[in-house]
From TrEMBL:
Matches recorded under Gene3D superfamilies: P-loop containing nucleotide triphosphate hydrolases
Residue span(s) of domain ABC transporter: 11-226
A single GO molecular function term of this UniProt record: ATP binding
Protein name, per record: ABC transporter ATP-binding protein
Pfam families: ABC_tran
Keyword Cell inner membrane: no
Keyword field: ATP-binding, Nucleotide-binding, Transport
CDD domains from the UniProt entry: ABC_MJ0796_LolCDE_FtsE (cd03255)
PANTHER family on file: ABC TRANSPORTER ABCH.1, IMPORT ATP-BINDING PROTEIN
InterPro entries, alphabetized: AAA+_ATPase, ABC_transporter-like_ATP-bd, ABC_transporter-like_CS, ABC_transpr_LolD-like, MacB-like_ATP-bd, P-loop_NTPase
Length: 226
């Protein structure tokens, strides 16, 4: 779990550039952002502006074309490799949930723990605890297609928390949900952030969601606007 007392930012992105298609698409240009331990940051901007690309670089899902990302002062891809960083320090929540359709809810939550070689007993206990915290004690044995959209996203949040990451990144976490479920998911994410002192980074194009965050940056044409 994160340690809010640690000095310095938890994440520091320095002068990030990311291009695709052999440089034909410049998704990010000269983006620098510093994120503190326990901070809740929202990133918004128009479609195609580079929000998801920035989240992928911060979350270690991809590497920048140039520039650096530091986690607690360690350069990603150098002092700490991306697999280790993702497995130990980052939990991911996506708009489309990305659950494994052939696994039950309780099995989906255990997937990240396999990478850290957690024992089977500990995996099951941890998954049960997390699913209970998400209010899913009666849905643990269900497959994703037997769950509502809101329930699927709660399973995905439980999975994101499996390895007690210090950073939770969420890419349009309410994008596939109605307003009631959106409000519930946001309540859960912000509750987790406060309770565990986690760093929460949310990409959203919805203003009312972005405004829940104490800090909000906007991206336009691959650059930070404010
Ligand atoms: N893997 C990829 N290959 C080629 N181009 C890509 C790739 N991923 C993103 N892009 C392009 O990079 C730019 C930024 O995309 P990105 O997904 O980061 O934007 P976004 O702000 O998250 O958009 P949206 O709100 O529509 O999800 C877009 O022009 C997009 O088409």
């Amino acid at each position: 779990m994160s340690n809010p007392a640690k000095p310095g930012p938890i994440l520091e992105a320095c002068n990030l550039f990311k291009s695709y298609d052999e440089g034909r698409i410049e998704a990010l240009r000269e983006v620098s952002v510093s994120i503190q331990h326990g901070e809740f940051l929202a990133i918004s901007g128009p479609s195609g502006s580079g929000k998801s690309t920035l989240l992928q670089l911060i979350g270690g899902l991809d590497a920048p074309t140039s520039g650096e990302v530091y986690f607690e002062g360690s350069l990603l891809g150098s002092a700490i490799d991306l697999d280790t960083y993702r497995a130990k320090h980052v939990g991911f929540v996506f708009q489309a949930f990305h659950l494994m359709p052939t696994l039950r809810a309780i099995e989906n939550v255990q997937v990240p723990m396999l990478a850290l070689k957690t024992s089977a007993d500990d995996r099951v206990k941890r998954a049960e605890t997390l699913l209970m915290e998400m209010g899913l004690e009666n849905r643990m044995g269900q497959y994703p297609n037997q769950l509502s959209a809101g329930e699927r996203q709660r399973v995905a949040i439980a999975r994101a928390l499996a390895n007690s990451p210090s950073i939770l990144v969420a890419d349009e976490p309410t994008g596939n949900l109605d307003s009631v479920n959106s409000a519930r998911i946001m309540e859960m994410l912000t509750g987790i952030q406060k309770k565990h002192g986690m760093t929460l980074i949310i990409v959203t194009h919805e203003n009312d969601i972005a405004e829940m965050a104490p800090r909000h940056i906007r991206i336009r044409d691959g650059r930070v606007e404010s």
